[in-house]
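Quick review question:
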C-alpha cells in the first residue's frame, strides 16, 4: 500500500498563537506546510499521522499538544520488531495514556502558566502492517471515497453526547491531561481502500466549514494547505491543522 501525505498548520486569522501540532511520519509540524514523499506501507512500518489541538491558555495549549505527540511518537518507536498489535492497543489505552496524563499533571503543578492544560489527539497509527484509528476529544478524521465524505471519529463533546445542538461545539468532556480520560482505538486496516482520501483535522476546520464545504475543498489532489486556507477564508476563528492521507489507487 502506497500513501501520500500533505500537512498544513496555522494560527488562523484571530488567534495570536498556534496551539495545534501534527505528528507525521516522525516529524512535528506547527505553523508550516509540507508535502511528504510517497510512503510505502509494509509490516515493518511504524509511524503516526496524528493531529493534536491543545488547550489551556497561551502557554498551556502549545505545551500540551507537543507533550502528547512527542510521547506518542516515542511510545510507538519503542515497540519491539515483533510487536503484538492487539497488546499494543491495550497498552495504549492504559499505560501510555496514564503516563502522558501524569506527565502533564506534573508539569502543570510545577508551572502555573500550564494550569488546566490538555489536548485532543486524533489520527492514524501505522504499525505491524495494521492501521489503527485513535481519537481523544473533538478533532476529526474524515474519509472521502467516491466523492462522499464520512466522519470516522466520534466527537467527545457535550453536543455529540447529549444531542443538544444549543451546546457550544467546542465544549468537550474528554481530553489528554484530564485525570479521568479515555482513548478510542480501533483497527481500521480492512476499511482502507485504494483511492481513499483521509482528512485529519483540528476543529479549526470543521467549525468553519460544514461537511459539504469540506468535501468540496478537500477533494484530491488539493493539498492540506488549500483546505486550511478555506477555513481561513471562512473566518479563521481558530487554529487550523490539516493532514491529508491519499491511498494510491
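Suggested answer, residue by residue:
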Amino acid at each position: 500500500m502506497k500513501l501520500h501525505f500533505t500537512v498544513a498548520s496555522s494560527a488562523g486569522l484571530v488567534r495570536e498563537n498556534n496551539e495545534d501540532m501534527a505528528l507525521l511520519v516522525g516529524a512535528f509540524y506547527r505553523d508550516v506546510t509540507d508535502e511528504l514523499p510517497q510512503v510505502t506501507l509494509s509490516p515493518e512500518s511504524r509511524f503516526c499521522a496524528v493531529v493534536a489541538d491543545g488547550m489551556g491558555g497561551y502557554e498551556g495549549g502549545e505545551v500540551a499538544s507537543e507533550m502528547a505527540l512527542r510521547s506518542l511518537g516515542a511510545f510507538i518507536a519503542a515497540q519491539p520488531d515483533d510487536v503484538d498489535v492487539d497488546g499494543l492497543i491495550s497498552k495504549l489505552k492504559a499505560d501510555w495514556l496514564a503516563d502522558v496524563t501524569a506527565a502533564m499533571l506534573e508539569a502543570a503543578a510545577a508551572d502555573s502558566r500550564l494550569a488546566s492544560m490538555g489536548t485532543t489527539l486524533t489520527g492514524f497509527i501505522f504499525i505491524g502492517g495494521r492501521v489503527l484509528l485513535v481519537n481523544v476529544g473533538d478533532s476529526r478524521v474524515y474519509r472521502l471515497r467516491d466523492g462522499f465524505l464520512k466522519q470516522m471519529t466520534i466527537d467527545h463533546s457535550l453536543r455529540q453526547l447529549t444531542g443538544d445542538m444549543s451546546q457550544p461545539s467546542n465544549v468537550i468532556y474528554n481530553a489528554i491531561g484530564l485525570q479521568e480520560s479515555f482513548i478510542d482505538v480501533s483497527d481500521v486496516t480492512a476499511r482502507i481502500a485504494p483511492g481513499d482520501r483521509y482528512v485529519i483535522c483540528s476543529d479549526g476546520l470543521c467549525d468553519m466549514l460544514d461537511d459539504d464545504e469540506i468535501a468540496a475543498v478537500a477533494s484530491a489532489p488539493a493539498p492540506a494547505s488549500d483546505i486550511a486556507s478555506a477555513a481561513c477564508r471562512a473566518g479563521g476563528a481558530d487554529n487550523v491543522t490539516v493532514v491529508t492521507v491519499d491511498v494510491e489507487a
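Why it works: The radius of gyration is 17 Å. Residues 195 and 249 are 4 Å apart (CA to CA).
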